[in-house]
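Let's do one together. I've listed all components of the complex below, 1262 residues spread over two lines.
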Amino acid sequence: MSNKSDSSPNLISANQIKPASLELEAVRKKLAEAKGPKYWRTLEELSDQKAFGELLEREFPRQASEWVDPVSRRGFLKLAGASMALAGLAGCTRQPLEQILPYVRQPEQLVPGKPIFYATAMPFHGHALPLLVETHEFRPTKIEGNPLHAASMGATDLFAQASILNLYDPDRSTTLTHMGELRPWGEFAMALNSEVRARKALQGAGLRFLTGAVSSPAFGWQMKTVQQSFPQSKWHRWDPVNRDNMRAGSKLAFGGYYDPIYKFENAAVVVSLDADFLSGAWFPGFVRYARDFMRGRKLENGDQMNRLYVAESSPSTTGAKADHRLVLRPSEVENIARGLAAKLGVAVTAGHLSGDQQKWIDALAADLMEHKGKCLVVPGEFQSPAVHALTHAINGALGNIGQTVSYIDPVEVDPVEHGQSIRELIADMNAGKVETLIIIGGNPAYNTPVDLEFVKALDKVKLRIQFSSYKNETTDHMHWHVPETHYLEAWSDARSYDGTATIIQPMIMPLYDGKSAHEALSAFTDQLGTSSHELVQTYWKSQHPTVDFETWWRTAVHDGFVKDSASPARQVTPKIAALPALPAADPGAIEVSFRPDPTIYDGAFINNAWLQETPKPLSRNTWDNVAMISPAMAKAWGLYLLNDENDHQSDAQRILEVEFQGRKVEVPYWPQPGHPDNAITLFLGYGQEKTGRVGAGTGYDAYKVRPSTAQYIGAGAIITVTNRFWDIAVTQGHFSMEEREPVKVANLEEFIKNKNFAHEHPDEEPKDGGDRQESLYPNFKTKENFYQKYAWGMSIDLNSCVGCQACAVACQAENNISVVGKEQVQRGREMQWIRIDSYYEGDPANPSVYFQPVPCMQCENAPCEPVCPVGATVHSTEGLNDMVYNRCVGTRYCSNNCPYKVRRFNFFLFADYDTPSLKLGRNPDVTVRSRGVMEKCTYCIQRITAARIASEKEDRDVRDGEIKTACQQVCPTEAIVFGDINNPDSRVRKIKDGPRRYDLLAELNTRPRTTYVAAVRNPNPKLASGTERA
Amino acid sequence: MAQIFHRSANTLARASILGVVLLLSAVGAALMEFQRSPYVTAQHIAPEQPVPFSHQHHAAGLGLDCRYCHTSVEDSSFAGIPPTKTCMNCHAQIWTNAPMLAPVRYSFSSGQSLQWTRVHDLPDFVYFNHSIHVNKGVGCYSCHGQVDAMPLMYEENTLQMEWCLNCHREPEKFLRPKEKVFDMRYQQPSIAHAVEVDGKSYTSQFELGKALRQKYHLRTSQDITSCSTCHR
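Okay, and this is what the predicted structure of the assembly comes out as:
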C-alpha cells in the first residue's frame, strides 16, 4: 500500500533476507517417486524444509507457548512473586453479591431461562437467507437456518452466522450527525421534510436514491409510490459485488432479465465455468445448492455419484471439490465455453484451444451428451455476459431447461445493471443534475469504480443524506448521517433466491435508535414517523385483500415464509444471435481477477472479528487479504525469499506493486497451488480507511485499481516486486499432522472394487470397536456404568465438506469463543475449536484439494486425560472428554499430549469482559473462559444436556437427530452427523458402520468418537489430466 | 566448651517439630473451616432486600403454592422470580398503602424492576437446572430448607460442590414422591410415619428412595457425577 511507510508494523525490512529454495522441478520429481498419494498442506512441507520440521514438532505452532513479550527478567520475577503470593488467596474470595431484576410485567410467552426461536431472514444483496434466531429473554444470541424453508433447510452460511456480531458491534454508528456534529432526530426530520416539499414542487427533479440490490417487496412498493409523486426522481443501485454479468448474459440469450434456478439434485454431471456455487453467499442459493449437490455424492444408496467438472480462473472451494479441474486464465473461460457450445451444436466458434483444452472439451461434451437432461452447466457470476449466454444455450441444447435449470423473473426488485446505474448517477452528479442524494446502506465512496471518481462528483450535490449502520468513508462526504438498523432490529421483508418471500421480524428494539430503510423512504410518502412494522404490513395487506389478514400475517411471520410465493418458472428459449466477438487475449499479459473476499465479502463485514479471524478457505490467512498468484509465477519472480531459515511463509510475504490501467496498489502475494499462471487474484473489501477498531489497518484496498470497465476481470496488469514485506497471519501450517495420511481418498472405480479401502491400515481398530484393549489407558468399556445408555459420537464426511468455514463461525457463536487478533494468530494461538485443514495432493500447478474439519475427537483412550494433574479433563460416562474450566490451572499438559492438536489455551484474557453490548450476545449456557484456561470442543454439551433433560422430563430416550451440534446444524452439505452410537438405528451409527469410515491417526489407538468418512472422487475414465490421482 | 543448650532443650526441639506439624495442620484445618464458614458461603445469612418479603407469611400463613410465584420451576433451569405484576395481583387490593410495599408500587407504576439480592447464588460456571430436579422427586425442601418458616429468605445450605455431590452420589437419601415435591410439610418415612407410593407403604427413606429412583428412571450416580452434568 502506498500509504504505508517502512516503519509500519506490517512491513519488514529486506535486510538479512536469505533465499530459501523451493524447487518446483525437484518437488515434482519427488512426487513422482513417492508411492501412493501424498498429501501436503504448505509448499514448505512439500519441499521438506527445515521450518516445517520444527513446526510439526510443537504442541502449538511457533512461539505460542513461549514468553516472547518484551518483559525484563526483573519484571518477570516481580510478577512471578506477586502471583505466587496471590495464588493462595484466590481460592478464598467471597462471591460478590448479585442482583436479580425480574420483569415488571412478564411477557406471556416467555419462560425465563428457556430460549425462544423466531423465524426471520437475512437480506443479502438482492436475495435473502431464511433464518431461525435463538433469543434468550429477547436478546438474539445465535442464528440458525429455517428448516421449513426450501432455501435453507436448516443450514446457513458464515455471513449469517457472524451477522449477529455486527448487531452487537460496539463500533456501529450510534448517533445521528449533521456535518459530524450530534443532532436530534427531530431536527433531521424537519430538514428532510422541507427538502421533500421543495422537491415535490419540482416533480422530484434533482432527487436521487442510491441503494444496493433490494429484494424487499415492501421497499419496492414504497419506491414505486415515491416515483409516482416524484416522477423525475431516480433510483440508482450499486453493489460492488453485483450480478451485472448474469443480467447482461440473460438479456443476450433471452432478451430480458431472468434468474436461473438450478436443480442440482437432478444433475448427474455438473460443469462449472468459473461458477463458485459451493463457496458462499455471493452465489444466491448457495446453501440449498450445496446441499442438493452433495446429496448426489453421499454414496449411501448404491454406487451412483455425480461428477463435477470445473474450469476456473481462481482457485475456489468449488474447484477443490471438482473431479476434473481445468486451470484457466480468466479470459480463457469464455473460449472454453465457446468450444464446448460449438461441440454441443450451438452456432458459435471458438478461438484457439490448446491440445489439453480440446481433449478436456471433447471428453466433457461426450459425458454431457450421455446425460442429456440430467446434466447442468453453471456460469460464474464473475464471468463475461457471453459465458452466461453460452451456458444458457448449452443447457438449452442439452435439454436441461426445465430439468436441471429453470428460469424465473428476477428476485431483485426492479433489476438493473449496477455498473450502468452508478455510471449514470455519477454522470448526472457531474452535470449538476443531482441536488439531493439519499444513500441507504453501502459505502459508495469506498467501493464504487475508481475511474468514475464518485467522491469528486459527490461534492457537487447540494444535500447528501446517508442511512448506514457504520460511519464509513462515505460519511465524511455527507451532510446528514442517520444510523441504520441491523436486520435483527427492524421489520422488513425479503425474497430468497427462488423468490419465496419472508417477513423479516425484528428480535430486539434498535439498540441505537436506528432507522430502517423503510422508515428512510417514508418521508417521501408523507408517512414520516410511521413504523417499519406498519409500512410492511400495509404493503402485504394490499397484496392479500381477501384473506383474514391477521391470521395470514401471523402464519407468515411464524413460519418464516409466505406460502407458495416462490416464483413460477418462465418458459424461455435461449437464442444466440449476436454474441460479442471473443476478446483477443494476449497470452503474455497478466490478467487480474477481482473477487469478493471469502470472509469479509465486499468490505461490509470488515469490522466483524469472527470473520476476520476465520481463515480464508484456501489461502488460510486471517486479518488481511492477499493477492493470489501461481507458485510457478512466484518462482519466476524470485519471490521465495524468507525472513530467515527458521521462518515459514506465513510470516512475511513480499509486497508486489500491482499497476492496472495506470493505478497502483501494493499487495502481499500468496502462492496458491492451482492458480493459473500470468494471472493475479485481488480480493475486495479490505484496506478501509474509516472503519471500527477491528477492521482498522487490515489488508489492502483492491478497489483502488478496480475500474468500471473491468469489474471482475481485466488484462494488462504490471507487477513490480518490491523489496518490502507484509506480515500476514496464516494458519495453514498450524497444528500439523505430520505424514500420517490424515485424509483417505479413492476413485469411484477403486471404491467399487475395494469398499474398505479406508481400512487398509494395519493398526486400524476392529470395525465393531471390539473389546481388544491393548492400551495402558483405563478401559472405560469394562467399567461399570460407562457407555451404558448414551455414547455420543460424530461422523464427518470428507466427501461432503466444501470447506466453507460456516461450522467454525457457528461454533464460535455457540460456544462464546474469543478472538485473539492478528499477532496472536501468527503465534498460533487462534481459538476456533473446529479447524478445517486443507490438504493438497499432486502437482502444485493443479493439485487435488481435500478439506478436513477437525474438532476434538473425544477419544475413548484419551491421551489428554491421564496427564492432567488437577482432573480438569475427565471422562464422562457418555464418553466425552469433559473439560472443566473452573478446575483448570493451565499446565497445558493436555494439549501437549493431544495428537490431534485440538485444544486451545487462553494465553491472555482474550474474552471481552467489559464491552456492554457484547455481553448481550453471549450464549448464557456456556461459560465465558478467562485467562489461563484450556478449552476445546465439547460436542456442544449444553445442547446435549438440554435435550437429555427434556427427554427425561417426558420419560423417554433422546431421539436420534434431536441433538444437533452447532457445526452440524449450520452445515449446508450435511457433512457432520452427530448422535448416539449405542443406538443401532441412529444415523451416525449407520454411517460409522459404513465402508468408508476411518479413524484419524488410528494407529495411535486413541479410539476417537469423531470419525471420518473417506472421500471418493468420480473422475471420467476417458480423461486423465493434471488432477487425476495416480 | 560448655554446652550452650541444656539437655532439656532436646525436648523442646522435639516438641517444636511436633508443634510445627500441629500448627500447619491447624492452619490447614482453619482454612478448610473458613472456606466452609457462613462468612464465605453466606449460609444462614439473610441479605438486605428492597422489600422484606416473608416466605413464612405467604407460604405457610396464606398457603400460596411455590409455583404461584416461581412459575418456571417445572419447565426451566431458572425457577423464576415473580414479576411485579404478580405481587400487585393481590397488593392492588390489600395492603395498598403499606409503606413497606412502596418499592413494589413504585416498580409497578414506573416500570422499573425491583432489585432483589440473589440469595441462592451459584458460581457462573455451574449450570443448575430446577426443572429436572423437581421432575425427579427432589423436593424444594431438600435444597432450600424450611422456606415456609423463614420470615426473611436465607440460604439453608452451603451450595458448595461437596454438598451437591452428597445427593448426586446417593439421591436415594433425599427422593420423595413427585406429588410431594412442593409440600413443605412432607416428612420422610419412618417407622412411626409410613409413606405410601403405588399402594406400597414405606417406612424407611432408603427403601423409598431406591423405589423412587427406579420409578423415576434416575441416571446412575456415575452419570450424574460426571463433570459435564453441571460444568460446561
